[in-house]
Amino acid sequence: MTLLHEQYESDGSPVLFRCRECGFTSLSLGTLHAHCESHRGYTRFNIQLPLTSTAIANVDALLEMTEILRVEKSREIGLEELDGL
Predict the structure, then answer these.
(1) Going residue by residue through the chain (85 aa), what tens digit of pLDDT does each one get?
(2) Whole domain around residue 29: which residue ranges?
(3) Nearest to 6 by CA among 21, 17, 19
(4) What is each CA distance from 61 to 1, 8, 54, 74, in whole angstroms?
(5) What distance in Å separates the CA atoms of residue 40 and residue 32, rounded to the nearest whole number?
(6) Number of folded domains in the chain?
(7) Is 83 within the bounds of a domain?
(8) What does the alpha-carbon distance between residue 61 and residue 3 come to, in Å, rounded to a whole number?
């Protein structure tokens, strides 16, 4: 199964979304907000309990945790320059 995430542009340039808490970056706003959920009110056992004040996603709070960056410059790199490969 493939999950599709909408990616955005600004004046023809790609947009990146970055977490203000830790710097995690994604092309997908949905992926970033899923990541940001890990920074919100979990219990001491690291589980999210239903029907608590943090159980339902708060879009405004997630957007406050989001920086939006437009990519204005790019350069081609080789596979050997990628981290994690």
Answers:
(1) 445 567 888 888 889 999 999 999 999 998 898 888 877 766 566 666 655 665 667 788 889 999 999 998 888 989 988 887 6
(2) 9-46+54-73
(3) 17
(4) 30, 20, 10, 31
(5) 13
(6) 1
(7) no
(8) 24
